[in-house]
Amino acid sequence: ALEYPLDVVNFSRKLAEDRLLCRALRAKARGERRALLGDFRALREARRETLGPVLDQELLPETVEGMAEYMGLRALSCLSEEKYRRRLETALRLLEEPGPLLLDVRRVSYYTGAVLLLAAEAAGIPFAHQLTDTRPVYDIICPQLPCGEVPPVPADETIGALIASRTVERRETLSRFFRTASQPVSGDFQVLGYDPMNMFQTGRLLYGSHFWLLCDRKSGQTIELGEAALLRSGGRRVQRYWRAQ
Q1: How many other CB atoms sit within 10 Å of the CB of residue 186?
Q2: Among 26, 78, 108, 219, which residue carries the largest CB count within 10 Å?
């Protein structure tokens, strides 16, 4: 997930996908919903052809977290239709408007997963499965959809600006960190724990703003970094780390 490419063409297609999902959920007729979901499938399969296994970083959170969000929304609809509608509209708005959330494939998958399931349900497409079925829920739904033609999606200038802003923001974060960071600690460390929602990678540097748990492979000692810290990695091992002071 840390190596997911910040590519303007891919994210322009992803935004078009997200908007198709929202249109499918808002549609009134079941046939229209299925047609829009078919267009959604066509775009996603085109991205899968380009990204390969990297697309799993969207499909798997959609399954685990998206299903949880879907169940939460369905439960809320039983308790308060008004609150359900407000929360759903917030989710749809976040998916339809290009913003920083679009570039965070883990966080945005909470919303795309929930909306996909709600749209599939409204279109009469079953997705119930055994817990032993390890396929992403998208791969359970997608064979039941028509696969439309892949529409042309031009690179979105707004997304290009978002990517440029994200790159500058990360550079500035590292610059601020190094101005006050401790001296580096070198060794042979293994990552045991981390906060996946608050971290990013730049080259061989891994930055986390809240939490890391390392193991010194030589002594067996565990090291908890409960604040901003930066790791320099080589493969799956950490060779050096800095911590905030």
Answers
A1: 11
A2: 108
